[in-house]
Amino acid sequence: MSIEAINEQLLRAIGVGVALLDTSELKFRFFNDTFKEWFAEIETGQQLRDVFPDIDTAEVIRALQETGQFTSEASFRIRRRMMTIAMTINPALEGNQKVAVLVCQNISRIKELESMIDSYSMMVERNTREIKREKEQVEKLLLNMMPRSVYEEYKTFGVVTPRTYENVAVLCLDFSGFSATVEQQDAGVIVSELNDIYTAFDRIGDQFGCERIKTVGDLYITVAGMPDPSDRSIQSVSDAAVRFVRYLENRNKSHPVDWNCRIGLAAGSVIGSVVGVQKYIYDVFGPAVADAMRLREAAGAMEIVAAADFAERFGEAHETEAAGSGALADGTAVELVRVLSGNGSLSH
Fold first, then answer.
1. Which pLDDT score is estimated for 88?
2. Which GO terms of type biological process are on file (predicted)?
């Protein structure tokens, strides 16, 4: 058997589709069994585009002349399955005649794996986006419940260490006649009104460096000087209190429901911690909170009440007037003042 015959036998036996083409018209001169198995209707003398209708034969010839190789991929259906092959055409010599060798490798499995990888990547990406979105929602919810620094501690360590903060200024607010207002209005109206008002309070408090701690019905508590200490904590809650009153005065002029707040201001130490295990919430309690709540009870509608020594610490930023005497939460007697909202200049 000649070498050429042996080579032909080898070509017929391998699992790669091999064909020989003449280089002038790209007609098939030979193909092995694998190629024949893929393209059952093929006959010698047929042109390349008879088997691959989408191929640009002019481009094949140009590539062979300029680069010495043409590569492409083609997909076709064998019975019920789609098959994809990678084809490579290289020039060669058969005796003294120039021919082109077409080698086709079945890459269907590779394509299937690539498709699976793409699908998996898309699924991972979609899940990652979903996890990120849920994480952002959880973070937003937690930041609505606790200061950012406390949230960072909770995120890092899973717990929040109870801490005592000194020189914290506390603003405690509620609405006079709240129960009567609730009875007179639809529940949806009350919730909508409070949401509107508390959102404005949050915005104002943030402007002055205050951190809202909690709301319980008509009770609204915000603080300054924690978790990060501030030399201006008293000034901050005083400015916020004045702005709260001004906001409500202006709002009542154009809204059907009148809201008249009472505000107590105090300063001192507080304890901040996450309270609860399952339905936990960041809470602040201690002498300053108790004092602010007690002084709030001494305030009339649209009044801001503080101890006289508290007012001395914000100086001339706001005018005050005597409000008699009262007692702090521990029973200590103090002189009270009303912080007037109509005069004075806000520090921000």
1. 94
2. cGMP-mediated signaling; response to oxygen levels
Q: What's CA 199's distance to the chain center, in Å?
A: 21
Amino acid sitting at position 256: P
> Burial, 24: exposed, middle or buried (Cβ in 10 Å; 0-12, 13-18, 19+)?
exposed
Count, residues in the chain: 348
User: Residue 11 pLDDT more than 70?
Assistant: no
Does the structure show a pLDDT above 70 at 277?
A: no
Domain boundaries, the chain: 3-111, 160-339
CA end-to-end span of the chain = 102
CATH 3.30.450.20 fits 3-111, yes or no: yes
DSSP code of 151? H
Closest CA to 7 of 64, 69, 92: 92
Paired tokens of 163 = 């801490």
Closest CA to 212 of 287, 143, 273: 143
Structure tokens at 20: 């020989």
CA dist., res. 313 & res. 232, Å (int): 9
CATH number attached to the domain at 160-339: 3.30.70.1230
Secondary structure in 3-state letters for 252-278: HCCCCCCCCEEEEEEEEEEEEEEECCC
The model's pLDDT over 107-128, given as tens digits with 9 standing for 90+, comes to 988 888 888 999 999 999 999 9
Specify whether the CB–CB gap between 170 and 265 falls below 8 A.
Answer: yes
Question: Whole-prediction pTM value?
Answer: 0.64
User: At 131, which amino acid appears?
Assistant: I
